[in-house]
């Protein structure tokens, strides 16, 4: 019985993970309209964007200057930031999604 419950819990966890991974799969970069610039930093900028087919969906889109990151050898810092954002589950930290 305990093994069955454990398997069921694992299956539910896999389903939740799949839903999280596929939550915004239908959105492409071309589907977003830039509303405003939220911030500018050393590696690029963060834009407020809106899904053109559903104006109630807004996102913060981070645009990085890849060549500048490579030139300054900051790839590890960018990967670290990505991994931290993936791991964080806080209402005060944006969730990480890829387009």
TrEMBL record:
Task: Give yes or no: UniProt keyword Secreted.
Answer: no
Q: Name the UniProt key words of this record, in alphabetical order.
A: ATP-binding, Kinase, Nucleotide-binding, Serine/threonine-protein kinase, Transferase
Which SUPFAM superfamilies is this protein grouped with?
Answer: Protein kinase-like (PK-like) (SSF56112)
Q: Where is the Protein kinase domain?
A: 32-99
Q: Where does ATP bind?
A: 62
Q: Which residue ranges does UniProt annotate as crossing the membrane?
A: none
Q: From the UniProt record, which GO molecular function terms apply?
A: ATP binding; cyclic nucleotide-dependent protein kinase activity
Q: What is this protein called?
A: Protein kinase domain-containing protein
């Amino acid at each position: 019985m305990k093994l069955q419950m454990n398997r069921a819990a694992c299956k539910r966890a896999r389903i939740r993970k799949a839903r999280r991974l596929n939550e915004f799969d239908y959105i492409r970069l071309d589907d977003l309209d830039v509303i405003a610039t939220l911030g500018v930093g050393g590696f690029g900028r963060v834009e407020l964007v809106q899904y053109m087919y559903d104006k109630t969906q807004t996102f913060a889109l981070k645009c990085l200057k890849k060549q500048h990151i490579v030139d300054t050898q900051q790839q590890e810092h960018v990967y670290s930031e990505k991994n931290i954002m993936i791991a964080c589950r806080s209402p005060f930290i944006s969730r990480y999604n890829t387009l």
